[in-house]
């Protein structure tokens, strides 16, 4: 789950409407207290019974059947008309295209020992493209960023990651834009596609991997497909929103002039929605980069592989350097697409550089680019990035040594934090969830979802619980749910403190928001590095990474909610003698309930996504099973079942949170 989901959430007052009407207080806390009491008493009487816990290597019949499906698909890949003829040709075509692009920009192109376009040519081309779509400042940023690929010592891996991301975004634009346009212009298309987009954005990123690996095999083609499917929903949603948000009077005025539907789209709707569409491309690009990094688990090319290998080897220095490379790419892509959106806005207003002047500048720069490309094809030192400028190995060693020194100095402090959370909160909650008999735990979850959201989320909870039981991973799902809940509580504590501070002080907001915006662009793997450095490989490491990942969006939503409280209401409270704490606790927080509920919902989804990825650094449970499904052939079925369980858990939590927001978020 990336920053993408949050960018498309409508205000809670509007979002709540499709789910349920707000209701009056029906003693919710009392009902929850009764459920908790019954739960604890039941746990005390029968804990440890019927928990459905299984050893990692113990497969259920369903999981063995999934292994057989994998075997059948692999056999069919050699002679079946669909898997061999259709899927096989698609895979071969994508892999060949990627190989050609590699040989063009990043890897040796036999018989040449270097790519067709050397590093100098790549820098010039990307700088020119940045100027063409944005501005000269963006071009400078891109040039510096691309040079850092070589300075960090990961030139080829960085360019490969850019290639696979660009391919995925290109396909998203070709496929997603028409779908978004169709959804905006035809309500039945929107009604048909929206549930699919909801499901795609609810699923944690790890859940995508094994099904795509089963169909497309591992490699660039699988990485491209999974990245494209993951990154397309935000582009579709924002495109639909951009076209729908055009004033109806404008559309009616154009219709009165006799324009056709095609002319209306081409001459009115698309130009007026251009800025929104570019924002959609921005979100699509960041999501694609995030997933292309995670696709290292399906042998996706790029920096993700080096980062995963470093994390698995507990090599903090290398993980930090590769993570820094991913951060550089994320910032470069985010700033470029954001600047492109701003330039589009200026064009709509008729301001900015003249078209003729810009074309002349582009042509002049284009001539320089052609010269640099020719030079990079001619001279070896301009084709292969000079090793003497690469500091990646030294930087990794310095970071590793420095990290060890710092960790040794604060080991007592970090261990204390881990022990307080683990023994005071995590262990008791895990015992309560995972050691409760499955049938009692299932009834508790259904009752909680019914009290909070009504019968609709209760029905969804029943279905999702049925999925967890069917795939044979109930106990692992409860362990994952435990870590998710603990991390979400920590996220909301931090988010409320920071959000209130930002909401009450514009200076604090001006200082903190740029950092939150920057952190929100980072792919999830980056958050694993500091957590791993401080806490080694434990489930608490996964929780820390999840907190870091989820706190950014939750804080921004809380801050916006606090700022949305009318100033006159705050002034009235203060005029009656209320202290700052009384104003916050009795006025601003209660009136920001909708924002708090939305922040909890978004934080929960972000946390679940990161907790699952935390299986790579000791998180265990469902995330670990997904990773095991890639590394051990005999556990493929269990890994795929874990992906299904993750999706079911995500849907259950998301629907319960949204229906709860609908019922109580507006009171």
Put the structure in a nutshell.
With 667 residues, this protein is an all-alpha fold.
The proportion of residues forming helix, as a percent range, comes to over 70%
Give unreliable regions as ranges.
1-24
Strand content: under 5%
Question: What average pLDDT do the residues reach?
Answer: 85
Coarse shape? globular
The fourth-level CATH homologous superfamily of the largest domain is MetI-like
Secondary-structure element series: HHHHHHHHHHHHHHHHHHHHHHHHHHHHH
Q: Which fold name corresponds to the CATH topology of the largest domain?
A: MetI-like fold
Number of helices: 29
Largest sheet: none
What's the CATH architecture name of the largest domain? Orthogonal Bundle
User: What is the CATH C level class of the largest domain, in words?
Assistant: Mainly Alpha
- Total number of distinct structural domains: 2
Q: Pairing-aware structural class of the strands and helices?
A: mainly alpha
Any idea what the radius of gyration is? 26 Å
Tally of strands? 0
| Distance, first to last CA | 29 Å
Descriptive account of the structure:
This protein is mainly alpha-helical and 667 residues long. The chain has two domains: 15-20 and 27-42 and 436-664, MetI-like (MetI-like fold), CATH 1.10.3720.10; 82-106 and 115-394, MetI-like fold (Orthogonal Bundle), CATH 1.10.3720. 80% of the residues lie in helices and 0% in strands. The chain has 29 helices and no strands. Helix 4 (61-79) crosses helix 5 (81-105), helix 8 packs parallel to helix 11 (220-244) and helix 16 (316-349) runs antiparallel to helix 23 (525-535).
């Amino acid at each position: 789950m990336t920053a993408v989901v949050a960018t498309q959430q409508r205000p809670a007052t509007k979002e709540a409407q499709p789910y349920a009407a707000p209701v009056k207080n029906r003693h919710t806390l009392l009902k929850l207290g009764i459920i908790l009491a019954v739960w604890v008493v039941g746990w005390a009487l029968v804990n440890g019974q019927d928990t459905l816990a299984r050893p990692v290597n113990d497969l259920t019949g369903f999981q063995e059947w999934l292994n057989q499906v994998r075997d059948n698909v692999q056999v069919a890949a050699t002679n079946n008309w669909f898997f061999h003829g259709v899927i096989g040709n698609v895979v071969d075509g994508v892999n060949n295209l990627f190989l050609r692009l590699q040989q063009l920009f990043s890897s040796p192109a036999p018989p040449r020992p270097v790519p067709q376009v050397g590093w100098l040519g790549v820098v010039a081309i990307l700088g020119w493209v940045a100027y063409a779509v944005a501005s000269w400042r963006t071009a400078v940023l891109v040039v510096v960023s691309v040079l850092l690929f070589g300075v960090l010592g990961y030139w080829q891996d960085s360019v490969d990651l850019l290639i696979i991301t660009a391919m995925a975004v290109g396909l998203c634009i070709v496929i997603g834009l028409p779908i978004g346009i169709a959804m905006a212009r035809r309500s039945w298309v929107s009604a048909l596609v929206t549930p699919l987009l909801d499901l795609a954005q609810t699923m944690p990123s790890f859940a995508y991997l094994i099904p795509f690996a089963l169909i497309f095999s591992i490699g660039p083609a699988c990485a491209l497909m999974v990245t494209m499917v993951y990154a397309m929903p935000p582009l579709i949603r924002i495109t639909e929103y951009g076209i729908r948000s055009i004033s109806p009077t404008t559309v009616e005025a154009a219709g009165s002039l006799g324009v056709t539907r095609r002319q209306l789209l081409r001459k009115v709707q698309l130009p007026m929605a251009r800025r929104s569409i570019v924002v959609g491309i921005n979100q699509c690009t960041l999501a694609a980069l995030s997933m292309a990094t995670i696709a290292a688990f399906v042998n996706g090319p790029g920096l993700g592989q080096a980062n995963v290998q470093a994390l698995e080897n507990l090599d903090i220095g290398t993980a930090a350097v590769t993570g820094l490379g991913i951060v550089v790419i994320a910032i470069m892509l985010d700033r470029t697409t954001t600047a492109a959106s701003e330039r589009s806005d200026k064009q709509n207003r008729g301001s900015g550089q003249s078209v003729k002047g810009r074309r002349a500048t582009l042509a002049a720069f284009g001539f320089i680019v052609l010269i640099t490309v020719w030079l990079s094809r001619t001279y070896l030192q301009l084709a292969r990035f000079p090793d003497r400028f690469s500091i990646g190995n030294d930087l990794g060693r310095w970071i590793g040594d420095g990290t060890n020194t710092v960790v040794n100095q604060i080991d007592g402090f970090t261990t204390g934090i881990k022990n307080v959370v683990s023994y005071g909160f995590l262990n008791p909650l895990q015992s309560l969830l995972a050691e409760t008999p499955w049938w009692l735990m299932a009834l508790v979850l259904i009752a909680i979802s019914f009290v909070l959201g009504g019968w609709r989320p209760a029905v969804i909870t029943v279905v999702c619980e049925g999925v967890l039981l069917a795939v044979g991973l109930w106990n692992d799902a409860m362990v994952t749910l435990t870590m998710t809940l603990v991390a979400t509580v920590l996220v909301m504590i931090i988010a409320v403190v920071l959000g209130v501070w930002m909401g009450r002080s514009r200076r604090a907001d001006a200082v903190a928001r740029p950092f939150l915006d920057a952190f929100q662009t980072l792919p999830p793997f980056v958050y694993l590095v500091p957590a791993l450095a401080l806490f080694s490989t434990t489930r608490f490491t996964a929780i820390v990474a999840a907190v870091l990942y989820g706190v950014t969006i939750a804080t921004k939503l809380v801050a916006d909610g606090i700022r949305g409280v009318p100033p006159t209401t705050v002034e009235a409270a203060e005029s009656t003698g209320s202290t700052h704490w009384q104003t916050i606790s009795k006025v601003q927080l209660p009136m920001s309930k909708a924002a708090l509920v939305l922040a909890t919902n978004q934080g929960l989804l972000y946390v679940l996504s990161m907790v699952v990825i935390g299986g790579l650094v000791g998180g265990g449970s469902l995330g670990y099973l997904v990773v095991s499904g890639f590394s051990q052939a005999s556990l493929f079925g269990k890994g795929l079942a874990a992906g299904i369980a993750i999706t079911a858990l995500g849907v259950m939590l998301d629907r319960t949170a949204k229906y709860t927001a609908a019922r109580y978020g507006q009171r």
